[in-house]
Amino acid sequence: ATPGEYELRESEGVVVEQIIRPTGLLDPEIDVRPSGNQIDDLLEEIDERVKKDERVLVTTLTKRMAEELTKFMERANIKCRYIHSEVDTLDRVEILRELRLGIFDVLVGVNLLREGLDLPEVSLVAILDADKEGFLRNQRSLVQTIGRAARNENGQVIMYADKITDSMRESIDETNRRRGIQEAYNQKHGITPRSVRKSKEAILGQTKAADSKKGAKNYYVEPEELSVAADPVVKYMGKDELEKMIKKTQKAMEKAAKDLDFIEAARLRDELEELKKLKG
């Protein structure tokens, strides 16, 4: 992880680096291209990745641009989605999961830094307007964004910009430094970088290890009829009692999502929707 100002201040600048990856995967190559023709160029790059069954992340500066770009890509028959701060936790997880499964190929967003997930299927990260200095285009943010392409053996980052800012130069230099260290390690130990790809079942099967040992299903299947709707006690509850149960279920769902137990969170989400229907 890239340390923030607080971590650097508290550690008085003493940082222990953990750069070497056992998989041998390198930090991505970075290409800086003019922004004048960035959309047409990006579409060509996306087409190449789609043919290889790889995914693409595109980061924009504004929500409006992300929305318009998504609409434009959809009109160009590109399977894409748009993720933003207003998307709740469960929907966010579902979107990222669908990206990995190949249900769509391109994810567009303003701030993709906080997703913090391994996305080995992503081979290209495109940074639009990379030369517009600010929070999302400072050195630390750029390094983190670049890192999204470091889980794929074909990882590449394209920065679209008309000039190379100090933040761009620093992030490029830092990425190349890390890449050089990993390359030297790979050569010394005879390691060939390989992406860690997971099967569809492995992606879907996010659950607790204890549950899998007990033989529990490691995936969630939406039932044809939710048990809560068939429960006669719930069915005849008053509105006040239903409201209490809705709040309780909502809280349990949010806790499950926070604990990364997305199977349970999905079950509670469906139960919550059914309770709201009963309340009317």
Compact description:
The chain has 280 residues and is of the alpha/beta class.
Topology:
Layout lengths: L4 H6 L18 E5 L4 H14 L3 E5 L3 H13 L4 E4 L5 H13 L4 E4 L12 E6 L11 H8 L9 E5 L5 H24 L10 H5 L4 H5 L13 H4 L1 H4 L3 H20 L3 H18 L1
Parallel strand pairs: 1-6, 2-4, 2-5, 3-4, 5-6
Structure explained in plain terms:
The protein folds into two domains: 16-189, Rossmann fold, CATH 3.40.50.300; 226-279. Helix content is 48%, strand content 10%. It contains twelve helices and six strands. The chain has helices spanning 5-10, 38-51, 63-75, 89-101, 139-146, 166-189, 200-204, 209-213, 227-230, 232-235, 239-258, 262-279; strands at 29-33, 55-59, 80-83, 106-109, 122-127, 156-160. It has a six-stranded parallel sheet with strand order 1-6-5-2-4-3, sandwiched between helices. The termini are far apart.
